[in-house]
Predict the 3D structure of the following.
Amino acid sequence: MNTQPIILFLELECVVYSDLGLRRIDAHERESAPSFGKSAVFSNAEVFAEIIAPYSDRMEIVITDWAAVHSPLADFCRRLPESVAARVVDSLYLEELTDSSWSDYHSALATRYACIQLWLARRRPNRRHDWLALDMGRQLDDWPNEEMRHLVCGSLSYPNIRQQLADSLREQCRA
């Protein structure tokens, strides 16, 4: 059994608060999705908290939302259940690369996958292979096929995505 911390890269706006992500899906998916009022938004955060609960004492969450380039982590944590917010350790966007007037994060080469690899290299160099990302996957073409095992792609509004996240976390603990 793996006792290392689980690093989870979390796209908060499109996954936990998936009413925002629904604007990006096609009409058929939108019609088949559950209602997305305020209570559904909150329930996705609670569902996320329930899924990660068995692993939360070992989990490090890194926020991957683009807004995290310029927003303090506390702004994101306020929108999460306390049990989840307590696990947030960093933003994907490294301060040493965002402080200048020109940032590599504005480059087309700064895909989500590339940014995750950079974060791992700088913040957890010994953990380059032990991580998971929960993301809407708008840049799937940029993920190498052999690295897709690290990605849970989609909205937590869908039971199959919830199950995939739970299965991936369980597998991460076994590895």
Observations:
- The chain has one domain: 6-174.
- DSSP finds eight helices and five strands in the chain.
- The first strand starts at residue 6 and ends at 10.
